Amino acid sequence: MDLRGKAPGRGAYLDPDPACLERGLAGGILAKALETSIDDLTADRLRGELAAGAKTRTGGR
Predict the structure, then answer these.
(1) Between the CA of residue 20 and those of 8, 50, what are the distances in Å?
(2) In this structure, what is the dihedral angle of CA atoms 8, 11, 14, 16, given to the nearest 10 degrees?
(3) Which of 61, 44, 57 is nearest to 15 (CA)?
(4) Sequence ranges of the domains in the chain
(5) Which helix (DSSP H) or strand (DSSP E) does residue 41 occupy?
(6) Is 39 helix (H, G, I), strand (E, B) or coil?
(7) pLDDT tens column, 6-49
């Protein structure tokens, strides 16, 4: 997860709302945008990184 949007490589913009991530995972939309498959382990990692990123952006609230 690249909170600044500056990392090189393939990416997809995602609202930092967990519901947005879940919609992207459930519909396969995120996997299609990233041109890769997303297994359960990767999905769990994305959930954790999104939660950590949200805390970083809000100052830990």
Answers:
(1) 23, 11
(2) -40
(3) 57
(4) 18-58
(5) helix 40-58
(6) coil
(7) 778 778 887 778 999 999 999 899 999 889 999 999 999 999 98
